[in-house]
Amino acid sequence: MSPSPSPSPSAPAIRLLLCDDHAVVRAGLRALLASTDGIEVVGEAGSGEEALALAARLRPDVVLMDLQLGEGVDGVTATRRLVSGEPPAPRVLVLTMFDTDADITRAIEAGATGYLLKAERPEELFAAIRNAASGRTALSAPVADRVLARMRSPRPGLSERERDILRQLARGLGNRDIARALFISEATVKTHLGRIYGKLGVETRAGAVAVATERRLLP
């Protein structure tokens, strides 16, 4: 990620809203951001619902969004609602510990301007916030590598049988009930599930349903 230029002394500060469900993390970020010029933390949210409410009231330029927010609205859903809300919509910069293909894809498809890992150096975080405020994409180097690798080697599409199994997963059925519904063996269901996980870049049933929903693979 190429660094952005520092703001000029006359430029207005970037208004930033923090969203993370850990108070200690928010406090650390606020203290860290206080050490740089041109970025003003205007609010803190501990949940997706709180982030949406504060964004509507405070009108930040950028929302620094964690993906995992406990119960309620998650980071991906909050991102989608923020960027599709009443103009001027804020830019959303994801800041998370997770760099799986599924998480990256869901966040970007939801409208996130950037995707940053919490292991980044402070200078990279500051540059990413400034890039996001200017509408420029900001990706951690490992994330950019994964995105490029995925573009170069796109995953194969789902077969009709795999789509059938996904639909049953979305209904909350277990392997045995899926096998009965589709007149196949449980072993066959497990084989198809492994292929589905690989194609969607997930490791769990819930992850498969979430990604399939995001990509409109389910009716």
Automatic annotation (TrEMBL):
Top-level taxon: Bacteria
InterPro entries cross-referenced by the UniProt entry: CheY-like_superfamily, NreC/VraR/RcsB-like_REC, Sig_transdc_resp-reg_receiver, Tscrpt_reg_LuxR_C, WalR-like
Positions where 4-aspartylphosphate occurs in the chain: D66
GO molecular function: DNA binding
Domain Response regulatory: start-end pairs: 15-133
PROSITE patterns (UniProt xref): HTH_LUXR_1, HTH_LUXR_2, RESPONSE_REGULATORY
Entry keywords, A to Z: DNA-binding, Phosphoprotein, Transcription, Transcription regulation
Residue ranges annotated for the HTH luxR-type domain, each copy included: 151-216
Name of the featured protein: DNA-binding response regulator
Record organism: Streptomyces hygroscopicus
